[in-house]
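Revision sheet: structure tokens.
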Amino acid sequence: MPDRRRGCQRQKDKSKRTQSLNNFGAGLFLVNGEEHLQQRKLMMPAFHKTKVESYRDEMVAMTQF
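Predicted:
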């Protein structure tokens, strides 16, 4: 079966669904190699178990309406 996407340019998704991702810039989503590792090292402390536990209840509360 031929790939129907070949030769087509992907349009940027400007819907509300992806609007919040605009704040991330390139971030970890769009970089590779050394730049990815550098950004990951900067972000990892915020996701350490003790850090997440410290703001877990607040995050849950923010999702409760």
